[in-house]
Known about the structure:
82% of the residues lie in helices and 0% in strands. The protein has three helices and no strands.
Amino acid sequence: MLFTFIYLFFILLMSFITMVCYGVDKRKAVKGDMRISEKALFAISFFGGALGSLFGMVLFSHKTKHIYFWIFNILFLLIHIALLSLIVYLEVRFLIF
């Protein structure tokens, strides 16, 4: 179960970082400062931060009107859940990790 815990820790860490990025971007948007690009927000969501993206969107009321943010972040979250399920399955079924 080691890889399950490592993956969960990675997802939680990336989600926290992503949520903070959404908060920073919202603050910059209000101030009119240079913002974090949408590509960067999508990239960190894809690489483990999808849950944090969804929390950040709701918590900071940021990018909530952009339907493509909802679609992609939910899709990325489903991918992360599928990967976690695969890791758990492999660890339990084959006891290889």
